[in-house]
User: Which sequence fits this backbone?
C-alpha cells in the first residue's frame, strides 16, 4: 500500500492535502472526535458544542475561556510531528502548494509549512464583539491563563478568537478556493480526518468526480473509504516512509 502511495504521488501533477485533528494527536493534542477527545468530553457539564456555540459565548464567555485554557492557549506546549514536518518538506519540494486544515493549533505553521489554509479559522487573532477591533493571540494569552476574559483595549468589549464557532459560517471565499483546488487535483491526501463533518465530507469528492484519486490516512473508518485509491491507517508509519522517500529524492535537503 505504501508503495502504491509513492507511485501515485510520483505520477501526480497536482496534489492537494487536507488535514484533520488526527494529525495533531501525534503531537499530544487529543483528537476532537476520537475517544477521550475534546468534542466527546464534557467540561463542567457542558458539551463542546455548547462551549463553542456563539450564543453561549455571548451569554458567558468565561465558560469558553475556562475550557480553552487547557488547549487553545497552551499551544506553545505542543510540537509539530513527523506529519507536519514532512508536509513542510513536500511543500519545499514543490510536491504540494500548501495544506488545507480543519485544525486550529498552528502546528502546520510550526512544522514549517508556508501556505496553510485554516478552514475553521485561527486563534492567531481575536475580534472585539463590540467594536470589531483586532487583538493578537499574544495580547490575550496572559489574561486567559490568569483566568480572566480578555477584553478589548479600545472599548472594553469581549474578545473572541477568530475560530469558527457553531452558529457561524465558514469563510466563503476560502471554501470556494478549496473546492476549486480539490476539483483540479490529480490526488487529494486526506490525513487524520474522519470526514464526518462538512466541508471535509464533500471536498474529497470534488477531486473524485473530476477524475482524481483519493488517498486517506486515518486510524478510524471514514464514509469515503470505498472511494479511496489508497487507504492507510497509520499516520506515523506512513509519514516516516514518505520522509525517507523525500530524503532519497533530494539528498542533502
Ligand atoms: Zn472593542
Assistant:
Amino acid at each position: 500500500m505504501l508503495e502504491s502511495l509513492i507511485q501515485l504521488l510520483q505520477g501526480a501533477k497536482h496534489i492537494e492535502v487536507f488535514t484533520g485533528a488526527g494529525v495533531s494527536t501525534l503531537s499530544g493534542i487529543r483528537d476532537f472526535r476520537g475517544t477521550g477527545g475534546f468534542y466527546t468530553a464534557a467540561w463542567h457539564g457542558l458539551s463542546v458544542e455548547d462551549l463553542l456555540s456563539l450564543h453561549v459565548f455571548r451569554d458567558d464567555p468565561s465558560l469558553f475561556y475556562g475550557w480553552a485554557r487547557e488547549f487553545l492557549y497552551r499551544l506553545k506546549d505542543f510540537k509539530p510531528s513527523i506529519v507536519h514536518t514532512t508536509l513542510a518538506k513536500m511543500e519545499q519540494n514543490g510536491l504540494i502548494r500548501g495544506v488545507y486544515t480543519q485544525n486550529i493549533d498552528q502546528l502546520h505553521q510550526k512544522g514549517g509549512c508556508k501556505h496553510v489554509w485554516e478552514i475553521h479559522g485561527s486563534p492567531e487573532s481575536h475580534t472585539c464583539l463590540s467594536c470589531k477591533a483586532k487583538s493578537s493571540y499574544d495580547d490575550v494569552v496572559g489574561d486567559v491563563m490568569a483566568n480572566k476574559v480578555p477584553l478589548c483595549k479600545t472599548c472594553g468589549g469581549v474578545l473572541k478568537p477568530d475560530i469558527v464557532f457553531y452558529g457561524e459560517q465558514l469563510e466563503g471565499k476560502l471554501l470556494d478556493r478549496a473546492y476549486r483546488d480539490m476539483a483540479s487535483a490529480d490526488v487529494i491526501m486526506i490525513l487524520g480526518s474522519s470526514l464526518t463533518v462538512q466541508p471535509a465530507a464533500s471536498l474529497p469528492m470534488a477531486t473524485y468526480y473530476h477524475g482524481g484519486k483519493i488517498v486517506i490516512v486515518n486510524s478510524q473508518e471514514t464514509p469515503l473509504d470505498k472511494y479511496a485509491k489508497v487507504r492507510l491507517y497509520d499516520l506515523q508509519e506512513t509519514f516516516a516512509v514518505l520522509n525517507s522517500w523525500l530524503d532519497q529524492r533530494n539528498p542533502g535537503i
